[in-house]
Design goal:
Number of domains: 1
Strand content: 25-35%
Structural class: alpha+beta
Number of helices: 4
CATH topology: Lipocalin
Number of strands: 9
CATH architecture: Beta Barrel
Distance between the termini: 70 Å
Length: 171
Amino acid sequence: MITRILNKITFVLFIGILGVFAGCNDEDDIEAIFIGQTWYVGDFYTTTNWKDDNNQKAVNTYENNKNIIRDYGRNRFYITFEDKTFTAKGITNTFSGTWSADGKENTITFLITDGSSSSGTTALERQITMDFYNSIKNAKFYRGNTIWVKLYPEDKKRFVQLTKNRKEKNQ
């Protein structure tokens, strides 16, 4: 009788432990992070350690771009992800295409298939818009979750940080 009870307890513990380990997953939830989400540019940075950039001082790429992003509002710099497609907008252009990501390797690929641009902006505005475009076009890796995403090129020394909620004066 005691043996049966011990066997049942052992079985229940085994199933419980199996459930805990089966639930562990090092892979990002691509659908939750990207699909159906709109991400807004927080800023552009350089870094020396892409895996630990939250614990070191990331250097802002431009002195004035925070003001431009803030002054033009969140609707001027964004990327919206759908299942396998995206649409993005900077101050002077919009572009779209396809994307794919690997949640285990933290890789991401964009293929830009369509775009348009406008004029009538300052040289700095055009430069920052091109940096946003190039940050998407050249992205090979990402880090993030459902609150923030960082896109990195192959060398992982520069990134654009994207956030979901931006508190801007011109929303």
